[in-house]
Amino acid sequence: MNDVLKIGDQELGSRLFLGTGKFSGTQAMIDAVKASGTELVTVALRRFNRDQAEDDLYGPLSQLEKVRLMPNTSGAMNAKEAVRAAVLGRELSKSPFVKLEIHPNPHHLLPDPIETYEAAIELVKQDFLVLPYIPADPVLAKRLEDIGCAAVMPLGAAIGTGKGLSTAEMIKIIIRDANVPVVVDAGLRSPSEAACALEMGCDAVLVNSAIAAAEDPAAMGAAFKTGVEAGRMARNAGLMPTSEVAVASSPLTSFLSAND
């Protein structure tokens, strides 16, 4: 079955995207990336540092077959800083993707919708494939789609909280109305939550802390790979409808009637 994910003119065989922060070391991150089967990883601009090998993630990641890089604008406080970071990231990585994230308040790390929208307008004009990290706001998601963003990335819960799909009801509305891929970003803690997101109709998930902070990041990367694949398979297979009343699964009534 051909079930590739299309984002703009790019095709991806995996629906699991990975963040590359918080790992104990570069080798642990590389092992997790390989085990996860991901084809798209996001990297902060400050991790493109060829002069200091211990800080450089671009070098080792660029050596991985099938893995594409998506620079992100983490650390940007406003639209102007985000656009500048995106341009620098593209120059360094040659990637068409940018994960647009602007979260100026370190106490909650929630994305700034106004600055994100303004930055997205400019980045779309510059032919980026823009994937904005946003609150689970159906109105904002539709506005970003309308100006040309290649996908939208609503949060499941605040970054690093591990509270799962706390915004599930809003994400369902975004999915219902979207004509671009919907990627849940932030909040996922377990592979079962990733499976739920795909079953719900999300096109992909982006995971970082849940894998990086696991006791065995590579094993957790493999577990998320399985969870995402299972959720997508279930979505494509068609989930049974729910019912407010019990429905017997065996025709016991007919059997008993025949022996009366």
Automatic annotation (TrEMBL):
This is Thiazole synthase. One of its GO terms (molecular function) is thiazole synthase activity. Catalyzes the rearrangement of 1-deoxy-D-xylulose 5-phosphate (DXP) to produce the thiazole phosphate moiety of thiamine. Sulfur is provided by the thiocarboxylate moiety of the carrier protein ThiS. In vitro, sulfur can be provided by H(2)S. Its EC number is 2.8.1.10. 1-deoxy-D-xylulose 5-phosphate binds at residues 160, 186-187, 208-209. Its main location: cytoplasm. It is found in: Cytoplasm. The active site is at 99 (schiff-base intermediate with dxp). Homotetramer. Forms heterodimers with either ThiH or ThiS. Residues 6-251 form the Thiazole synthase ThiG domain. Keywords: Cytoplasm, Schiff base, Thiamine biosynthesis, Transferase. It comes from Pontiella agarivorans. InterPro entries: Aldolase_TIM, Thiazole_synthase_ThiG, ThiG. The keyword Cytoplasm applies. The lineage of its organism: Bacteria, Pseudomonadati, Kiritimatiellota, Kiritimatiellia, Kiritimatiellales. Pathway: Cofactor biosynthesis; thiamine diphosphate biosynthesis.
